[in-house]
Amino acid sequence: MTFKYRCNFQGNRKNQFFQKNLQSWSAHRPAQAVRSYLPDPLLHTFYRTIDMALRSNVANGGVDKTTSSSPPSDGGQEKQKKLLAAEAGHFSIIKALHLADLITELNGFCGFMSILSSMRYCLGDPRSYTPMWFALAFMPFGLFFDFMDGKVARWRKKSSLMGQELDSLADLVSFGVAPASAAFALGLRTPLDTLLLSFFVLCGLTRLARFNVTVSSLPKDATGKSKYFEGTPIPTSLCIVAAMAWCLSQGYVEGSDGVIGGVWGGEESWWGGVHPIVGVFVGWGCAMVSRTIHIPKP
After folding, report:
1. At how many degrees (to 10) do helices 161-172 and 191-214 cross?
2. 44 exposure class (CB count in 10 Å sphere: 0-12, 13-18, 19+)
3. Exposure string over 244-277, b if 16+ CB within 10 A, otherwise e
4. For 82-93, what is each residue's pLDDT tens digit?
5. Largest Cα–Cα distance of the chain, in whole Å?
6. What string of DSSP letters covers the chain?
């Protein structure tokens, strides 16, 4: 008896042949039928290969791990999980922080200092703009640290699940709450203004939460980075910060020449009126949570 093809249990033939027919062989091929068309010298090898393939299939849960696309586990992440789960030491969390995580903390620090500076302006002389300039200046520094933490993480080749959460929280403070606080300090203070500013912050919060959930499913480039942003990134709110800086330089603030566009309805009305310029924050918030806006990553 001659064979047209040799028995090859490697590569694609193994994946296609065994995965489809392994169970049917074991259930419907008795030993006599197998022995009838296989020569005796190959019979032992055949049984041994079938047995090894069955054991491998069961151990892998029916999935061929050699063709799995899931990336290998990050040793840095596993080490960080163990350190965070450790119960020894009140400040053991410090050991779990990577250098990139500490830089992310500086981003959050800049955002919080911006909020405090806006509050200081509200409590002081409205003609003294120094605290307000500090409030607006801290936010670009937050963007600098936001860029640097990613560069340091790639340089040190250490990823961190905690760093991803820290980054989102710091971005919310620096590019969500801080710009809204600055806008409030500059004059958007009616009840409806504050409600719409809250909408902007909540849109930023929702956008960051969605990013954390969907980042693994977005299309990746050759380096493993996502190809685009889904919705406008929250750091783009610095464009509004730049506009507020211009308004401050021209004196278009509450207590001086007034906010650009004035107020609709009048602050003496029962609903307190609204500054139409607050619509910029509403539109920016809608752009952040949009799923149809795709911005390519640099």
Report:
1. 160
2. exposed
3. bbebbeeebbbebeebeeebeeeeeeeebbbbeb
4. 656 665 666 667
5. 102
6. ---SS----SHHHHHHHHHHHHHHHHHH--HHHHHHHS-HHHHHHHHHHHHHHHHHHHHTTT--GGG--PPPPPHHHHHHHHHHH--S-TTTHHHH--HHHHHHHHHHHHHHHHHHHHHHHHHS-TT--HHHHHHHHHHHHHHHHHHHHHHHHHHHT---HHHHHHHHHHHHIIIIIHHHHHHHHHT--SHHHHHHHHHHHHHHHHHHHHHHHHTTTS-B-TTS-BSEEES--GGGGHHHHHHHHHHHHHT-STTTT--TT--BS-TTSTT--B-GGGHHHHHHHHHHH-SS-EEE--
* 293: its two tokens: 């806006």
Alpha-carbon separation of residue 50 from 27, 32, 127, 228 (angstroms): 13, 16, 85, 46
- CA–CA distance, 174 with 180 (Å, rounded to integer): 10
- The identity of residue 19, as a single letter, is Q
Give the Cα separation of 204 and 187 in Å (integer). 21
Residues in the chain: 298
pTM of the model: 0.69
pLDDT tens digits, one per residue of 112-123: 999 999 999 999
The DSSP bridge pattern shows strands 228-230 and 294-296 to be antiparallel
